[in-house]
Amino acid sequence: MPDSPDTIASIARLSDRPEVELVLSLTRPRIGPETSARIAELLGGPVNWDYVRDFAWRHRLLPLLHNRLSKLHPDAPPEHVRQEFQHNAQGISQHNLLLTGELVALNRALSAQGIPALPFKGPMLAYTLYGNLAVRPFSDLDVLVRRDDVIRVGRILEAQGFRPKLTLTPAQRSAFVRYENDLTYIQEGTGIMLELHWRFFSRYVAFSLIGDFWSRLRTVRLAGSPMLAMPPEEHLLVLSVHGAKHLWVLLGWVLDVAQLLEVHGDIDWDYLARLARETGSERMLHLALILASDLFGSEIPESRRRLMADDAPAMALAARVGRSIIAESEAVGGIAEHMFYLSARERLRDRLSYGWLWLFTPNYKDQSFIPLPDILSPLHYLIRPVRMAADLAARVIRRGG
Question: What is the pTM of this model?
């Protein structure tokens, strides 16, 4: 992985605050001699540790930052800062271990029933990319199952004390599974939240992996329990789409990409390129790679780097992400999120599909807006534009007030 002055300079250009460069340098997947020297130089100057804490916490980098500081520069932060970092890191570690235990129990229950399930994000991501459950914060569990298994898995979850967040009639549940991508369950007593997925993203995102995705999954052992895991190519593409869908507002998401590239030096770049082209997600992949390279020094093959440099829209989106992270000017949700995602799709048909499905595909909010008998539920296709127009009008009125 490169560790050159050019890479370090690109990090520094993000902000005039040395604390930003310090956090990014300390959380890189690999810290080489030049980065190490720069970290020492930054720590030798004035450091606003309150800003470091807030910036790292906001971007889900605080436990990893604490881990690196403890190993490399344990005496650099003042005593009260070290204690605060340690307290936060311990809380995250305990929370992560609790969720990991619940994931193991669920995985065993599903395996006993012969139901394949793919844990992603959360404990699986922390373990496979960082090798340490304590350094990557996560707030809930995410499990992907086949759509035909959703009802069976729901019963198993309820047997383990989880209750669905939404109460749906049979017709609503059928429509929900057809058009949505996940259903949230909350465990009684612990409050643990689990998102049961049957596709990675909402239908209007217009992205799905090609071929027999389930046959390419591999097996890893998490907390001694065998679990399914994505191969690096599919995993990288899923991370790329997720980040683009949410404007890459968190540096922790970019670091996940950088960690994947660091851990999986054997990525099949030809297969990844074909997968990105066939799913219409090449620009989203380029955007993720540009950010990982510029912010965390990830090494990208020269052939792919040339394609990234020639993708002018991806380069422009990356510059926008860098500016918004420092200015804290982007918020997830609303028109800005939709426009960003549309700009990240290179195929016209994907942009049109996204707009059409987002505008006319009913969801639970539409069903709740005007409840209808199951036999009349198709009318929600007409209700959705009305409901969205009402929401927009309400927002305009609130702003005007």
Answer: 0.90
